[in-house]
Amino acid sequence: MENEAFEIEGGIKMDKIFPQSAAGQSMRWSKFKNNDPRIDDYLRLDAVRDVIELPIDDVLDINGWDLQKTLRLLYKSNPTLFEWFSSPIVYQETEFVDKFRDLMVHYFSSKKTLYHYISMAEGNYQEYLKGDFVRAKKYFYVLRPVLACRWILDRGTPPPMLFSELMKAELPAELIGAVNQLLELKMNSPEVKLIPRIPEINEYLDGSISSIKSAVRLLDDSHTPDWNELNQLFLQELMNWEYPSFASYALMMLKLVETYRIAERDPKDLLS
């Protein structure tokens, strides 16, 4: 159905469907006629799977989200998104990354992110660190979110992904020695299952969780983000024929997995 016939039958001008903007003008009705699977996914009534999840192995931990899901979660200041985009490990980047990073700063909410991390810290503390003997690595399940909260309260920005950076910026000097011993134990003696509880670290975590919860309650979070920028980016990328489909990304990640496994087995195999 061409534009004119669609307007006659539907009684709606095309410019109401495709707005008079850079994104809207790039959207031609012909895009909808060519069986682009991405368009079909967004127009169907039953929801389709919108995540990529590959089995975790010793080398890679790969997850992905569909663009629509990603932008909706960015609107909510989803902490996982900010963690992914601050990761020092980058398999591959596209031009989209720069566009997305420019948007992220407008959607970060200190209060929402603090609630996320302090809930994680408190839950893990209650579950893993209350006994006389605890698993060494479980300390980091509480230390990292607590230090992330400290970072946000001090700077109002997303916390870094690297624990070493958080530790350097936020951990009290008197605890550095004890935490370094935990790090060494975690890296060099993974077979050690249980260690005696470390009172000074527990006291710090217990006090930090209480004070952070009080600080979060006092924070003002009246800023309401705008959907417009996210909608524009979504339409631009959806109608960009050069942009890989969701399935293409899944295939690309599978190829990356195979490449890393070959390199782990014998780097010379990559030359064959």
* Total domain units: 2
Low-confidence stretches: 1-35, 267-272
Number of strands: 4
Q: Residue share in helices?
A: 55-70%
- The rounded Rg comes to 24 Å
Task: Give the SSE string.
Answer: HHHHEEHHHHEHHHEHHH
Shape: globular
Give the strand order, joined by hyphens, for the main sheet: 1-2
Could you tell me the mean pLDDT?
80
The end-to-end span amounts to 51 Å
- The fraction of residues assigned to DSSP E strands is under 5%
> How many DSSP helices?
14
Structural class: mainly alpha
Main sheet: strands, sense, barrel: 2 strands, antiparallel
Task: Give a short overview.
It is built from 14 helices and four strands. By secondary structure, the protein is mainly alpha-helical.
Key words describing this protein structure:
single chain, 272 residues, mainly alpha, 2 domains, two-stranded antiparallel sheet, two-stranded antiparallel ribbon, 14 helices, 4 strands, globular, disordered N terminus, disordered C terminus
Structure commentary:
A two-stranded antiparallel sheet has the order 1-2. It has 14 helices and four strands. The longest helix is centred in the last third of the chain and has 20 residues, at 199-218. The protein has helices at 3-10, 14-17, 22-25, 37-43, 67-75, 79-85, 95-104, 110-128, 138-155, 163-170, 176-188, 199-218, 228-238, 246-265; strands at 51-53, 63-65, 133-134, 195-196. It has 272 residues and is mainly alpha-helical. It has two domains: 18-107 and 229-271, no CATH class; 110-218.
